[in-house]
C-alpha cells in the first residue's frame, strides 16, 4: 500500500464526513471531502483517489447512481468504491454490489471496521504480478485487458464475477469452499456472508452462458472450475 492513500469521502452530512476524515488522517490516509456527486466529480477530474467512500443517500444523484456512473467511466472504473449505507437489508447490499461497489459498510460503523475495510479494498485492488492470459478449453481470460471470451466471443462480467472467474481459472480442477473463495476474492474480513458467494457464482454462470458447465458445484464442498465440463 502506498504512503498516505487518498480517500475521497462523498458524504452530505458534515459531522459524519468530519469524523471519518479525522480518523483517516490519524491513520495515515489523505481524506478529501465532497458533499455531493458534482463536487466529487470535480475532485475525480482533478486527481484520482485510491478509494472512494460513497454515501448512499445524497442530494442530487444518489450513491447507487454515482457508483454506476463511475464504474462505467474509463477514468474512474478502476477506483475501488466502498458504499456507506444506513440501510442494512440484503436487497440494498446486493444493489450496491450490482452497481459496482467493491464493498459496503452499514452505518453506524466503528472506525476500526472502516479502516479494515478500506485496507482490504486497497489490497484487493493491488495490481497482480505479471497477469498472463489464461485459457481453459474455449474460454479465455485476459486479466491485463480485463477481457473474457468464449469461442472468440466476448463475455460481459461484473467486477466481482471477473475476479471470481480469474481466481477459479488460475486454480482450476480444485475444489474451493465458500469460505476460501470469500477469503481470496473478498479479502480478509468476516462481514460478508457465505451465501454472497452463491449470488456471485449464479451471476457468473449466467454471464458464462454455454461455458457455465465448466463451473461445477461440488455438493457439500464448494465450487470447482474444470476443463472437463
Ligand atoms: Ca447522506
Helix content: 25-40%
Q: How many independent structural domains?
A: 2
The CATH superfamily of the largest domain is identified as Response regulator
Shape: elongated
Q: Strand content of the residues, in percent?
A: 15-25%
Distance between the termini: 39 Å
In CATH terms, what is the fold-level topology of the largest domain? Rossmann fold
What's the arrangement of secondary structure elements?
Blueprint: E1 6-10, H1 14-26, E2 30-34, H2 37-46, E3 51-55, H3 63-72, E4 81-85, H4 90-98, E5 103-106, H5 111-124, E6 134-136, E7 139-142, E8 147-150, E9 153-155, H6 159-170, E10 175-176, H7 178-186, H8 195-208, E11 215-218, E12 222-225
Parallel strand pairs: 1-2, 1-3, 3-4, 4-5
Antiparallel strand pairs: 6-7, 7-8, 8-9, 10-12, 11-12
Helix pairs in contact: 6-7, 6-8
